[in-house]
Specification:
Largest sheet: 8 strands, parallel, barrel
Order of helices and strands: HHEHEHEEEEEHEHEHEHEHEEEHH
Shape: globular
Strand content: 15-25%
CATH architecture of the largest domain: Alpha-Beta Barrel
Oligomer: single chain
CATH class of the largest domain: Alpha Beta
CATH topology of the largest domain: TIM Barrel
Strand order of the largest sheet: 1-2-3-8-9-10-11-14
Number of domains: 2
CATH superfamily of the largest domain: Aldolase class I
Length: about 400
């Protein structure tokens, strides 16, 4: 019996057919993060009761004032030079957190970039992301060379310029580290040359979680299966002690009982303050003015279930762009009446749109600081609500 998936916990297909009882003997994630036959073991403890997160003061203040801004560098984005540039630019611009892949090299590139910040710049919280199951944020494009006709249809739709046509041979080249798995290239490909495979974060996760400079972790889940959440904390609990934990999933479409069970499970497993990040659809934002509404509406729908859980911070991601600042302050209908989303949503995570916002400036300059002013213009309406959106 084996679980398949990014961390060995399971995919959507496997969850329905797992014989869970034999697995109660225990599994070892540290052994390469693949489930293998193992003798019975004592369960690892959840984070101890006195291990509540040590949330940086400026991050806590941003959450409390509903001005929290996190830049999502990308769960499967591992182009180290660009990771470092994005980390420095958005740190200088005032981002409260940087969400990066839980890959040792990516985390080290982020930390090294932050070590170069001027002394008067508040250091953003470093959040390392990993998947609980077959979450779509952890994918990489794969090229099946024999099927490729080198038409270049994928070039203009890629937000990170993964694709290039060789000037000499005319063949399509794929710069895989730049890919974060948005999938925009798949529907425009006229053949079966492109596919998305899981970006596996097995080796090195323990090293990342053991690093005290990584103040936060984000667990992504496509299924939000409470059993898998329990197993994750059984195995990683001691490594999560003292870290601010975020759980990212899509509550829209799930039954209220399911969402309530997720909240109750997380509250039981995590001592103290933690985050639920409501993911919207689309996963990857465009400049569409409506792009962030699904995430905002899903968070509004979830918020009544959090009334008895004041330790839970509620944020949104997925489809977030410059227009989101406008929608957060518009009166919308909810199950409890009309409300401004900013009253219950404490902040957001912006990925594709934030990266694309500064991409050309980073390409055009030898120094990332030349893109800082552009980044500040993007953050201003969220962190300083009186300022207008730059869109």
């Amino acid at each position: 019996m084996a679980w398949l998936g990014c961390l060995g916990y399971g995919t959507a297909r496997d969850l329905k057919r797992i014989d869970r009882e034999p697995l109660e003997a225990g599994i070892s994630l540290i052994e390469g993060y693949a489930v293998v036959a193992a003798p019975p073991k004592t369960k690892s403890p959840h984070p101890p009761a006195d291990s509540a997160c040590r949330l940086p003061v400026h991050v806590a203040q941003a959450l409390d004032t509903h001005t929290y801004f996190k830049v999502i560098v990308g769960g499967s984005f591992n182009e180290l030079g660009r990771v470092a540039q994005l980390a420095r630019v958005f740190a200088m611009a005032g981002a409260h957190a940087l969400d990066v892949s839980a890959h040792p090299a990516v985390v080290q590139a982020t930390l090294t970039a932050l070590d170069t910040l001027p002394a008067d710049v508040a250091r953003p919280m470093v959040m390392a992301s990993f998947p609980l199951d077959d979450d779509p944020h952890f994918r990489k494009i794969q090229l099946n060379r024999p099927d490729c006709i080198d038409c270049g249809a994928c070039l203009p739709v890629c937000p990170t310029r993964v694709f290039d046509l060789d000037a000499v041979s005319g063949h399509l080249h794929v710069d895989e580290p730049l890919c974060y798995g948005c999938g925009r290239c798949l529907p425009v490909c006229p053949t079966t040359a492109l596919d998305l495979d899981a970006f596996v974060l097995r080796d090195g996760l323990v090293q990342v979680l053991a690093d005290d400079r990584v103040e936060s972790v984000e667990i992504h889940s496509a299924q939000a299966d409470c059993y898998l959440i329990e197993r994750c904390f059984d195995d990683l609990g001691p490594l999560l002690a003292g870290k601010y934990i975020s759980f990212c999933y899509r509550p829209a479409g799930l039954e209220t009982t399911h969402n309530r069970a997720v909240i109750e499970t997380l509250s039981r497993l995590i001592p103290g303050r933690f985050m639920i990040q409501v993911d919207g659809n689309p996963m990857s934002a465009t400049s569409d003015a409506q792009s962030s509404r699904p995430a905002i509406e899903a968070a509004l729908a979830l918020s009544p279930l959090l009334r008895d859980y004041p330790q839970v911070d509620l944020t949104v991601s997925g489809g977030i762009n410059a227009h989101t600042a406008h929608w957060l302050r518009q009166t919308m209908d909810s199950s409890t009446g009309k409300i401004q989303p900013i009253q219950v949503i404490q902040g957001l995570g912006m990925g594709t749109f934030a990266r694309h916002w500064v991409w050309d400036a980073l390409d055009a300059s030898a120094h990332p600081d030349d893109a800082v002013e552009q980044a500040r213009a993007l953050l201003a309406p969220f962190c300083f609500p009186s300022r207008h959106s730059p869109c």
